[in-house]
Amino acid sequence: MFAGLDPQATALVLARMQFAFTVSFHFIFPAFSIGLASYLAVLEGLWLKTGKPLYLDLFRYWLKIFSVAFAMGVVSGLVMSYQFGTNWSVFSDKVGGVIGPLMAYEVLTAFFLEAGFLGVMLFGMKRVGRGLHFAATLMVALGTFVSAFWIISVNSWMQTPTGFEMGPGGQFLPGPSWAAIIFNPSFPYRLVHTVIAAYLTTALVVGAVGAWHLLRDRTNAHSRKMFSMAMWMAALVAPVQIVAGDMHGLNTLEHQPAKVMAMEGHYQSHPDGAPLYLFGIPDDKAQRLDYAVGIPKASSLILKHDPNAPLAGLDTIAPENRPPVWIVFWSFRIMVGIGFAMLGLGLWSVLARTRRRLYEWPMLHRAAVVMGPSGFVAVIAGWVTTEVGRQPFTVYGLLRTADSVSPIAAPAVAASLLAFVVIYFAVFGVGTWYILRLMSAAPEPHEDGPEEDEQAPIRTAGITPAHQPQGGVQ
């Protein structure tokens, strides 16, 4: 596999593989917990507003699942930060002055917010007032969003770096305005696109669980409610995501044109309007798209809003600065294809509602079950498109990936990569199995929550309200 590569190049490839593997595992858990935390806040808010026990049952049902997913997200995220010091120490030294404070802000705001209120959210339903518990749920949901805010800001700065100054030794230092760093040109588009993707991912999982149980019992009120809420989310938000994705693509064309060229499979420039390729086999060596199937001038229409507008191709980019087209081309199509499948599922559910058949169409329910994991596939495909499309740079146009890796030996990286693969599949495989086991049981009236667990923590001082002797405290 690594024939013809020198040892340092092999270490670089292995370091990239290791980071890609760990971040792929990590990304799926925050993508789920961001949306699920907001869904829990909605469920608890509806319970407080309507007083219907059904919403409380669903809250407790999904709270158990959230607690496991959140824990796996935290654990998998810790590993990634260590790689900045082990495999990417040169990158950390060069850009630490800019991204270090941003990542610290994520800990000081999002992590502290989540850690401060998570215990109340998980175990405080019977120990604090309803209003305080709802406030804790809102704070956890806000914390997940704030975490996404800072992490997306860091990654967006690497995509579209602004607001920095070059120091001695080629180090990136913050300029006079932190706002220019935080709110870099791609940040607003990527934040909206990522957060909506998290909401859709959660909606599809909730919808799949509801559909799974509807296939077994169409009369279950809890399954009906969660399926209905999820389908509303898919129907209303999927079109918004497509529009947000289009705006993000236009922003990428402005600031990272080579990435869009790779996404579109445009090896050659098209002076009279570029086609939209639906299918093709990229050949990076020959710089051509084999077996191409496309719509004439549609790419120019989408990207320039003019079918005859010229679009530059990779032939205008220096060979050493071109991203690997075959990965970006296909990961982009996987993401877009799943996005339109989400839209189709949402529209199908609207049709079922109009015919009063939302809970009576087994084919719709089976389709929802099949689409359950598709959100995770889409977010990973989107991440691959973004990160591989940025290559060969870590800081776009300024710092090359080959110049960012630590001076490490390939066998050491290979050993740690193998260890990560074994441990991740063992630990997170068991965690995922446990989540699926929780989902396999249908929600029931008077659903137990984490606070019913005998191992749940109690107050460290005094007597808990649930265990006060009759007559009150003496």
UniProtKB/TrEMBL annotation:
Predominant location: membrane
Enzyme Commission number(s) from the entry = 1.10.3.-
Please list the coiled coil stretches: none
Cellular component aspect of the GO annotation: cytochrome complex; plasma membrane
The record's region (Disordered) falls at: 445-474
Give the enzyme's main class according to its UniProt record, as a single word.
oxidoreductase
Highest taxon of source = Bacteria
User: What is its subcellular localisation?
Assistant: Cell inner membrane; Cell membrane
- MF terms (GO), sorted A to Z: electron transfer activity; heme binding; metal ion binding; oxidoreductase activity, acting on diphenols and related substances as donors, oxygen as acceptor
How does it sit in the bilayer? Multi-pass membrane protein
Listed InterPro entries: Cyt-d_ubiquinol_oxidase_su_1
Which residue ranges run through the membrane? 20-41, 61-82, 102-124, 131-152, 196-215, 227-244, 327-351, 363-384, 408-436
Q: Does the keyword Cell membrane apply?
A: yes
Q: Which keywords describe this protein according to UniProt? A: Cell membrane, Electron transport, Heme, Iron, Membrane, Metal-binding, Oxidoreductase, Transmembrane, Transmembrane helix, Transport
Protein name, UniProt field: Cytochrome d ubiquinol oxidase subunit I
Query: From which source organism is this entry?
Result: Novosphingobium hassiacum
Organism taxonomic ancestry: Bacteria, Pseudomonadati, Pseudomonadota, Alphaproteobacteria, Sphingomonadales
